[in-house]
C-alpha cells in the first residue's frame, strides 16, 4: 500500500506504459487549454429572448415558454397560437398564459420597433460569427 493513501496500492509500470500515460495526460491538458481558448458567441441583445424570429412563431396550446419572445420585421400577427393580450397602458408588449415573459413585435409601440431591429441584427451577427468558426480536430 501507498503510505500517503493506505487504501491505494502501488503498481509497477514499464517505461512504455509510463510514456503512454504521459502522452495521454499531455494530450488531455492540450485539449482543455484549447477549450478554454474558445470564446462564446456574443448574442448581444438577441440573448434577451427565449425565441427570436424573422419568420414568425407558432405554438400549440400546451407549450410553456420561459422568457421573452419576439418577431421582426414582422407584425404581432406572425406570433400565432399564443392568444396575445396587449395591455392598453403599455402597447410596447403583450402577454400570454403560455409565456413567462413578454411578446414583442415590430409593430408595437416605441421603443419596441428599434429594440427588435437591434435584436434581429445582433442575432444575424451571432449566427455569422458562429457559422464562420472552425472546430479544431
Characterization of the model:
The longest helix is centred in the first third of the chain and has 23 residues, at 15-37. A hairpin with a 2-residue loop joins strand 7 (94-96) and strand 8 (99-105). This protein is globular. By secondary structure, it is α/β, with parallel strands linked by helices. Mean pLDDT is 82; it is low at 1-26. Strands 1, 3, 4, 6, 7 and 8 form a six-stranded mixed β-sheet that branches. It has a two-stranded parallel ribbon with strand order 2-5. The protein contains two helices and eight strands; from the N terminus they run αββββββββα.
Give a brief rundown of this model.
31% of the residues lie in helices and 20% in strands.
Amino acid at each position: 500500500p501507498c503510505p500517503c493513501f493506505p487504501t491505494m496500492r502501488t503498481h509497477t509500470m514499464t517505461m512504455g506504459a509510463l510514456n503512454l500515460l504521459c502522452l495521454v495526460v499531455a494530450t488531455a491538458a492540450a485539449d482543455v487549454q484549447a477549450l478554454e481558448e474558445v470564446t462564446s458567441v456574443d448574442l448581444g441583445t438577441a440573448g434577451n429572448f427565449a425565441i427570436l424570429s424573422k419568420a414568425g412563431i407558432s405554438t400549440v396550446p400546451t407549450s410553456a415558454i420561459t422568457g421573452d419572445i419576439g418577431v421582426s420585421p414582422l407584425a404581432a400577427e406572425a406570433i400565432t397560437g399564443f392568444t396575445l393580450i396587449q395591455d392598453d397602458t403599455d402597447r410596447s408588449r403583450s402577454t400570454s398564459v403560455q409565456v413567462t415573459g413578454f411578446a414583442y413585435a415590430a409593430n408595437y409601440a416605441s421603443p419596441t420597433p428599434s429594440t427588435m431591429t437591434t435584436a434581429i441584427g445582433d442575432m444575424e451577427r451571432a449566427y455569422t460569427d458562429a457559422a464562420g468558426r472552425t472546430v479544431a480536430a
